[in-house]
Amino acid sequence: AQSVTQLDSQVPVFEEAPVELRCNYSSSVSVYLFWYVQYPNQGLQLLLKYLSGSTLVKGINGFEAEFNKSQTSFHLRKPSVHISDTAEYFCAVRATNTGGFKTIFGAGTRLFVKA
Amino acid sequence: GAVVSQHPSRVICKSGTSVKIECRSLDFQATTMFWYRQFPKQSLMLMATSNEGSKATYEQGVEKDKFLINHASLTLSTLTVTSAHPEDSSFYICSAPLGGGNTGELFFGEGSRLTVL
User: Fold this and answer.
1) Pick from A51, A101, A107: CB nearest B97
2) A99 touching chain B per CB within 8 A
3) Which of A1, A39, A114, B24 is the most core-located residue (most Cβ within 10 A)?
4) Distance separating alpha carbons of residues A73 and A6, to the nearest angstrom
5) Are strands A73-78 and A56-58 parallel, antiparallel or unpaired?
6) Where does the pLDDT of residue B1 fall: very low under 50, low under 70, confident under 90, or very high at 90 and above?
7) DSSP label of B74
8) Which of B18, B22, B24 is nearest to B9 (CA)?
9) CA distances in angstroms from B22 to A14, A17, A70, B45, listed in the order given
10) Is A108 at the interface with chain B, CB within 8 A?
């Protein structure tokens, strides 16, 4: 079974500052890793994903994440945030060996960008 | 990108009535769709996997007679909350995968907010 821990429930940050949203996972099998963003009263949108290869993954809206297998982490970063980045961010894992799309989500981190 | 659409986006109903929520894949076919429930300021809880042409697979603790799922075509899955009660009030989100194996992307609907009075 897999589980995902997002270490911060809320992250307030000033506009143009850098931000890191932390994610750790546990799994007895290898996993694929994802970050999704959810704006109020909307569904989720994929920001980026790690399947294999380079451990540094770049996504949309200037976000990137680094897969660290030894620390079982997949932290999300952005060097300079905008007001429009205010949203809920979810880290998620999916086992590589199931052949299906069952995805486990973390509890979410609310990023609040202040002017 | 692929589009998944849910309808209605908001619904208010009286306790004891049934409510149907539709999830459509607009520009691709989806033999599998997923239904999630999201409580305020919490994560998504997978309720069930909807399979086209066969019975849905429910997660442990989810009442299949309470949450009826039908996947009658390759582009439509429906979730019916039967005999709704206030505790069923929640944000329901569907998703559909696109891509081979299990490496593809999940596309999410806009969500449906159910309020049971």
Assistant:
1) A101
2) yes
3) B24
4) 10
5) unpaired
6) low
7) T
8) B22
9) 39, 41, 42, 18
10) yes
The answer to whether the peptide bond before residue B8 is cis (omega within 30 degrees of 0) is yes
CA A2 to chain CA mean position, Å:
15
Test A44 with B102 for CB contact under 8 angstroms: no
Helix (H, G, I), strand (E, B) or coil at B102: coil
Of A45, A94, A107, nearest to B42 by CB-CB distance is: A107
Taking the C-alpha atoms of residue B70 and residue A33, their distance in angstroms, rounded to an integer, is 29
Above 90 in pLDDT, residue A34? Answer: yes
Tokens of B56: 């849905």
pLDDT tens, B66-113?
999 999 899 999 999 999 999 999 999 999 988 766 777 889 999 999
Chain A contacts of B113, Cβ < 8 Å?
41
